[in-house]
Amino acid sequence: MLGRGASGPLCIRRGRLDMLKTIGLAGALLLGLAAAPLQAAITIFEGTTEGAPTWNRPLEDFSALSAVGTDVAYVADSFTVTVSGLYDFLEVADAEDSWDNYLFLYAGSFDPLAPFANGVVGNDDFGAIGISGFTGISLMTGITYFAVTTGFGNFDFGKYALVITGPGAAVPPVTVVPEPASWGMMLAGLGAVGYALRRQKSLKISFG
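RESULT FIELD:
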């Protein structure tokens, strides 16, 4: 079973920043906003790997299994993109948890027992410990991707914020048919990540 983040993604258009959901990880949000082109769509996944399933992670080039991350917690955030193109990924570990995060991207499927299969790219320190990411990754519509957040060593776990920027939104799958009473909430969430919000000029943040 794939690990999931503590909360869903936020989809953002640049403009006026109304509020921040996660004050402790505001640095990730600000870095993502600063790096994104004016017309880029920005999606934020946030969560924690604490108490999540564990795996023996690979090295960032998928050449071998890690000798230090042999039983390290992970979370797999699955998504598809609404527009094909080049996407940038920036993930920041919560400084309060003081942990060294590691980020992988898989395409099509992800199996923690087969960590080399379908691997696209991985990164440990994107300029500094506690920051992982990669740029210019070609993503296609119709393909499910898995952003796997994990740690460098077995005792590296904690909260994280992952910022994905590109020509379209990164949308998680809807797997549960809601009860009628919850349709309104689901529609509101979908509206936050849909095309209508992407056409707005002002910045809005919606919580999944």
